[in-house]
Write a structure and sequence with these properties.
Largest sheet: 5 strands, mixed
Number of helices: 25
Oligomer: single chain
Mean pLDDT: 77
CATH class of the largest domain: Mainly Alpha
Helix content: 40-55%
Low-confidence stretches: 1-11, 151-192, 194-212, 672-684
């Protein structure tokens, strides 16, 4: 009945009853709530210090000062219930500071209950819900300040003041015909408007802290600004890529101008020779003038002079475009610097200190330990670090789950701890530190550790584990992350429903983080959470599998390496790096793609992944590079697929999936080896790759479009040397080759390809304006497969391409 009465006294108003604002200033109430939350958070840190050193005078004075400020603000706002409770708490601390009273063994828990009640009341006021005058708790503080005995009913009510009451509880209390004391029954009456008449205020009672130089903005507005800054970064990347393409076009234009000037020079020499020849054929010879001085020009000669002038104009225009491009590059560089600073500044505004969450976590530990009759101390280390506000908000509930689980499952009761040779008071530790772009949160306790026998038994009951399966401790520990998994024998408010750790694991995965578990029987359990410091921007490594590009967050990448191809056939081989062994995996198989082949590479490139205890060396086709990316959400449907962290938009507008490789590796590791999915090796690409080599940009574009319409992949090169450089990374399935090109012509390139074991089997179609038999014969002697003249007919070209590749012509449809 005492517990029932305590529940009834805890909250004497309907939880949904609205706060009466008739005689209150809503703006002043909001100011008070905002200030009150900050004051209580600061007081909570002082309370933690007071538990360590109960006689520290500075801590007591600090708490007294916070309560004094809170009391004054509450009375000015008309929230008298908060003001009266704060006043009696301040009076107790004042008596302790002046050595008129001792805080005593129960003093700190009493202060914690008082501050918890203040926090609950201010939270309700902020939500515009009614609050009750905490008469019993006020009476308990008054009695301790006077040194009197504490009434039983008041003590009971204060002890469980945070437990809500239902209407049925009050009805049961009435049915029991228990007559409540007058000062207790008063707490059952809801307060109205101002809540009570304010007493006379001293000058010091109305003291409110001076406002700080801060600006508060809505969180959704800040998020939109960060997203806009990300969009600016994406558009900047697209502008940079287009500028690069423009610069390449200008270089092509310069090469074209050089060819035109060379051709015009030869044309002028030819026309001058014709003038001299015609002069010598004529009968009349005037030795006074040189034939070139007679201005006896034909129409062809006049046109050649005009073309020379046009070529000079074109060269001048190319110089102007080159200057404009340099100015454009300078402006874009300046804009890029400002954009980056803007984005970094906005990201800093989203960063909030982790210790702002500590008051809430301390209250969770106090309430859980009080309900279970356990003594628990929360210890902190490095919690001054900062996280993205969105990360911290999404991790608040999971951290509360973990703390409740530590109190309910991990820590023993005092008598059990004494039997185990431990102190009566258990300890839960939260440690925070940074590793690269990740924030690592470690939550540990010194309790009994995980009961692996019970975990296995429960896993077998649920069909998660075969009875004859041999599982490591790490695999058994991971079972507690399964939905609905619990080893509790009975259901309570804090444990037994199997809801908790699966929520933690799911939230961590959705944030792109990892959760590791380490437990020692009789010593305790250690959880390690690795989270991205921010969700908006990250560094990523770009890799390719086939023709598909993926981004991998650099926080999970330990390094890159290479391995000999012949080592890949051994299932037990590992890659040694930094004194650690990395298990080999194939990224193509992990994502359901064809296996990595790394064509053109003597050794297989490796991406070395580290996530918690996981070490994996993943084979890929190519490492493209790394850069900063803007992370975009992919929606709940795609995000639910294991291994997808998000997506980003590239400079050319294409979308690249951001992979979280660790879940993919863990998923494959759980599959039995005999049923592991193996994608067969394929000899050809799914879409053949055709390389077009021609010094004419027009020819490259026209031919490329013809091939792309026929559903071929196209690569281009402007001459023989450029083609060889491209083929160091890729080997085409077919080559379309011109003869006359600068630096290296078509004959030289074809000869070099036939001498290279990697390239000798690539079919070559020569497309040239040199249609003479001598040129044709030389091409076939080198090993060219087909010889076409310019301009070619599109059906003829595609017919030859299909025949050499062995592709059905319906492929182009």
């Amino acid at each position: 009945m005492a517990a029932l009465l305590a529940n009834a006294l805890a909250e004497s108003v309907d939880p949904d009853q609205a706060l009466d604002l008739t005689d209150l200033d809503p703006e002043l109430v909001d100011i008070f709530v905002e200030e009150g939350v900050d004051l209580l958070d600061h007081s909570d840190r002082l309370l933690a210090q007071l538990r360590e050193t109960p006689t520290d005078r500075e801590t007591l004075v600090g708490l007294q000062r916070d309560l004094h400020t809170l009391k004054g603000g509450a009375r000015m706002a008309g929230i008298m219930a908060v003001g009266d409770l704060g006043h009696v708490m301040e009076s107790l601390l004042e008596a302790v500071v002046e050595n008129r009273r001792e805080l005593g063994r129960e003093g700190v828990p009493l202060l914690e209950r008082g501050f918890d009640r203040l926090h609950t009341m201010i939270t309700r006021v902020g939500e515009r819900r009614a609050i009750a005058m905490p008469e019993a708790l006020i009476a308990q503080f008054e009695a301790r300040a006077r040194g009197d005995e504490i009434p039983f009913a008041a003590a009971t009510a204060a002890t469980l003041a945070s437990v809500p009451v239902a209407a049925e509880a009050l009805a049961s209390a009435n049915d029991a015909t228990m007559e409540l004391p007058e000062h207790v029954s008063a707490e059952l009456k809801p307060l109205s408007a101002p809540l009570a008449e304010a007493t006379a205020l001293d000058d010091e009672d109305i003291g409110i802290r001076a406002p700080q130089e801060q600006v508060r903005i809505r969180a959704d507005l800040l998020d939109r600004l960060v997203n806009y800054a990300g969009e600016v970064a994406i558009y900047r990347a697209r502008l940079e890529q287009q500028l690069g393409a423009f610069r390449t076009a200008i270089a092509e234009m310069e090469q074209t101008n050089l060819r035109v000037r060379d051709q015009l020079r030869r044309l002028e020499i030819e026309t001058e020779a014709q003038i001299v020849a015609r002069y010598q054929r004529e009968d009349t010879v005037d030795a006074t003038f040189d034939p070139l001085e007679l201005d006896r020009f034909s129409t062809l000669q006049q046109l050649s002079r005009a073309l020379a002038e046009s070529a000079a104009d074109q060269t001048s225009l190319q110089g102007t475009l080159d200057d404009l491009t340099r100015q454009y590059e300078t402006l874009l560089l300046q804009q890029s610097r400002v954009s980056s600073e803007l984005q970094e500044g906005l990201m800093r505004t989203r960063m909030v200190p982790f210790d702002g969450l500590l008051p809430r976590l301390r209250r969770v530990v106090r309430q859980a330990s009080g309900e279970l009759g356990k003594q628990v101390q929360l210890k902190l280390e490095g919690t001054h670090g900062e996280l993205d506000r969105n990360v911290l908000e999404r991790m608040t509930a999971p951290l509360e789950h973990m703390l409740r689980n530590s109190v309910a499952h991990g820590l023993e009761k005092p008598e059990d701890r004494r039997k185990a040779g431990k102190a009566d008071e258990g300890a839960i530790r939260i440690a925070l530190h940074r590793e690269g772009s990740e924030v690592v949160i470690a939550v540990s306790d010194d309790g009994r550790g995980l009961d692996r026998a019970a975990i296995r038994r429960r896993g077998e009951e649920r069909g998660l584990v075969r009875p004859d399966a041999v599982l490591s401790d790490a695999v058994l520990d991971q079972l507690i992350l399964e939905p609905g998994f619990s080893t509790a024998t009975e259901v309570s408010k804090l444990a037994g429903r199997g809801v908790g750790m699966d929520v933690v694991a799911s939230e961590v995965r959705q944030l792109g983080g990892t959760l590791d578990i380490h437990s020692v029987p009789g010593k305790g359990t250690h959880f390690t959470l690795r989270l991205p410091q921010t969700l908006a921007v990250t560094q990523a490594v770009f890799v390719k599998i086939g023709e598909t590009t993926f981004a991998v967050p650099i926080a999970s990448v330990r390094g890159v390496g290479r391995i000999a191809r012949e080592q890949l056939g051994n299932a037990d081989v590992t890659y040694r790096y930094g004194g650690e062994d990395y298990a080999l995996h194939d990224l193509g198989q992990l994502v359901g793609h064809a296996p990595a082949k790394a064509e053109g590479h003597l050794q297989m490139p490796l991406l070395l992944i580290r996530a918690g205890d996981l070490r994996a060396a993943v084979t890929i086709d190519q490492i493209v590079g790394n850069r900063e990316i803007v992370v975009k959400p992919v929606g709940p449907q795609v995000a639910s697929i294991p291994g997808i962290f998000g997506a980003t938009i590239m400079g050319d507008g294409s979308v690249v999936v951001i992979l979280d490789v660790a879940p993919l590796v863990r998923r494959q590791a759980t599959l039995p080896r005999d049923v592991e999915t193996v994608v067969p090796m394929i000899e050809h690409r799914r879409v053949p790759l055709v390389m077009v080599v021609d010094d004419s940009i027009t020819m490259r574009k026209v031919t490329g479009r013809v091939l792309e319409r026929a559903n071929f992949e196209v690569a281009t090169a402007k001459d023989g040397l450029d083609a060889l450089e491209r083929m160091a990374e890729i080997v085409p399935d077919l080559m379309l080759l011109d003869i006359e090109m600068p630096r290296m012509d078509g004959y030289e390139l074809a000869t070099a390809m036939k001498a290279d074991p990697r390239l000798r089997n690539v079919p070559i179609i020569m497309i040239t304006s040199r249609t003479g038999e001598k040129h044709r014969e030389r091409a076939f002697e080198i090993g060219v497969n087909r010889y076409l003249g310019k301009p070619y007919q599109e059906p003829e070209l595609l017919r030859n391409v299909h025949e050499l590749l062995g592709v059905n012509p319906r492929h182009e449809q």
